[in-house]
Amino acid sequence: DWTPKAFIETTINELKETIGNEQVILGLSGGVDSSVAAMLLHRAIGSRLHCIFVNNGLLRKNEFNSVLEQYKDLGLNVKGVDASARFLEALKGESDPEGKRKIIGRTFIDVFDDESQMVENAKWLAQGTIYPDRIESVSASGGPSATIKSHHNVGGLPDYMKLKIVEPLQLLFKDEVRRVGRSLGMPSDILGRHPFPGPGLGIRILGDITEEKVTMLQEVDAIFISSLKENGLYDQVWQAGAILLPVNSVGVMGDERTYEQCVALRAVESTDGMTADWVNLPYEFLQKVSNTIINRVKGVNRVVYDISSKPPATIEWE
Ligand code: XMP
């Protein structure tokens, strides 16, 4: 019978044995999986685990600093690397979804590689890969879905890094990972965090990416997410976020005609992201969120709610 306590004990012992006195590098994403993997390794080898948390400039508002603080509070040996400028520069002028994913993935590897070089004598790369990631990446390499989207979480690291791979969560499902995290005493806002794509807001800004667009979308997203939390809806939703559409529409403010941007809100129910239903959020809630966004976020004059399910739509718009 599987229990988190027994899993933790066995895994920590195995990690101690496999890793011995060597140094390990791990990339934290802010998500549940990499965070729980880090905590397990931390328990096993302490500060010989070197965590790297990269700001790609496409995270949610304030996420880089607040998550970094949380990691430090958990006692992790973590280095925050703000590479926003490098990512934005690399993305300049690119508007193709797969093109953006490739640039973000490649830049991440470059930044991560630079940082890993600074960890002396690193022999291991730890990853928060869970069981469903494997299934998906296997089918994505052969199946007809291969070209739909390139998820860069698995197998994306270059050969020249020559590090041995350790994946303590590779046999677990998401709910088991959460139970392990809870049993390790991790805060519920890390464990209950919605999934967030590696390319972040980069694939929620349709078309090319600029710093202004990122800031605008961060503001919209922050209003939506904090409203979900304030209204007790966050935990009832599997994933939520806002999308900045490449559309201007006419509006009116006072006596002035405006011609500004439109944002879409998306909230879905799902168990694994493979299929998803749009969430029937209360009209009063949507009404309030829409008003707040239009009143507070300069440059946005229209909000729409996405009522498409997957399939045939996907969760992300790109
Ligand atoms: P789709 O849009 O394919 O999304 O229905 C399914 C789940 O995967 C996430 N997603 C990604 N995650 N890199 C990631 O790490 C990506 O390129 C990527 N694309 C989509 C999406 O947020 C949803 O949870």
Walk me through this protein's architecture.
The chain folds into 2 domains: 4-191, Rossmann fold (3-Layer(aba) Sandwich); 204-305, GMP Synthetase, Chain A, domain 3, CATH 3.30.300. It has helices spanning 4-19, 32-45, 63-73, 84-91, 97-117, 131-142, 174-183, 188-191, 211-230, 283-296; strands at residues 23-28, 49-55, 78-82, 122-126, 164-166, 239-253, 256-269, 277-278, 300-305. It starts with a helix and ends in a 13-residue tail after the last strand. The chain is α/β, with parallel strands linked by helices and 318 residues long. α2 (32-45) packs across α7 (174-183) and α4 runs antiparallel to α5. The chain contains 10 helices and 9 strands. The structure holds xanthosine-5'-monophosphate. Xanthosine-5'-monophosphate is lined by residues 101, 149, 151, 153, 195, 197-199, 239, 273, 310, 314-316. Xanthosine-5'-monophosphate binds at residues 101, 149, 151, 153, 195, 197-199, 239, 273, 310, 314-316.
Brief descriptors of the model:
single chain; 318 residues; alpha/beta; Rossmann fold; GMP Synthetase, Chain A, domain 3; 2 domains; 4-stranded mixed sheet; 9 strands; binds xanthosine-5'-monophosphate
Topology:
Elements: H1 4-19, E1 23-28, H2 32-45, E2 49-55, H3 63-73, E3 78-82, H4 84-91, H5 97-117, E4 122-126, H6 131-142, E5 164-166, H7 174-183, H8 188-191, H9 211-230, E6 239-253, E7 256-269, E8 277-278, H10 283-296, E9 300-305
Parallel strand pairs: 1-2, 1-4, 2-3, 4-5, 7-9
Antiparallel strand pairs: 6-7, 7-8
Helix pairs in contact: 1-2, 1-7, 2-7, 4-5, 9-10
